[in-house]
Amino acid sequence: QVRLVESGGGSVQAGGSLGLSCAVSGDLSIPYCMAWFRQAPGKAREGVAQIDSSGTTTYRDSIKGRFTISKDNVNSWLYPQMNRQQPEDTAKYYCAVDSAYGGDCPSPAIPVSLFGQWGQGVLVTVSS
C-alpha cells in the first residue's frame, strides 16, 4: 500500500505551462504502473498518461506532444509537465498506482478500473 499526495495545481492562461507533483510514500519496494488521470466538471474521470516500472510511457491521444510524465528512480515522485495548456485541460488531476501486473501497464487505454490506489486530486484551471 502507498499514500499518494498531489501538489502544484492552480491557474494558468491558455498556452501556458504547469507542472504537478505526486509524492508517493509507503511500500516502494513493489514495482508499480503509475498514472495521471483528470476529471473535468460534469465528465467522467479519464486517463491522461501512464508510466511503467521500466519507464515506458503511454499518453492519451488528445494530449500527446503537450504532456510529459516522468518519475524518479525510487518511484517516490511522479510528475506531469503540461505545456501549451488549453481551456479543455481544466480539471481535477489525480495520480494513481497499480501493482497487480508487476509494474507493467497492461492497457494503453489507461482505464480507471485498473488503478486501486489514488491521491486526493488537485485542481488545474486554464483560462482563455
Order of helices and strands, N to C? EEEEEEEEEEEE
The rounded distance between the terminal residues' Cα atoms is: 40 Å
Q: Count of helices?
A: 0
Q: Ranges with pLDDT <50 over ≥5 residues? A: none
Strand content: over 45%
Provide the gyration radius in Å: 14 Å
The oligomerization state is single chain
How would you describe the shape?
globular
Helical fraction: under 10%
Report on the biggest sheet: 7 strands, mixed
Structural class: mainly beta
The overall pLDDT average reads 91
How many E-type strands?
Answer: 12
Question: Can I get a quick summary?
Answer:
The protein is mainly beta. Helix content is 0%, strand content 48%. It starts with a strand and ends with a strand.
Structure description:
The protein has 128 residues and is mostly beta strands. The protein is built from no helices and 12 strands. The chain has strands spanning 2-7, 10-13, 18-19, 21-26, 33-39, 46-51, 57-59, 67-71, 77-82, 91-98, 117-118, 122-127. The strands form 2 sheets. Strands 2, 5, 6, 7, 10, 11 and 12 form a 7-stranded mixed sheet that branches. Strands 1, 3, 4, 8 and 9 form a 5-stranded antiparallel sheet that branches. A hairpin with a 5-residue loop joins strand 6 (46-51) and strand 7. It is globular. The model has no long low-confidence stretch (mean pLDDT 91).
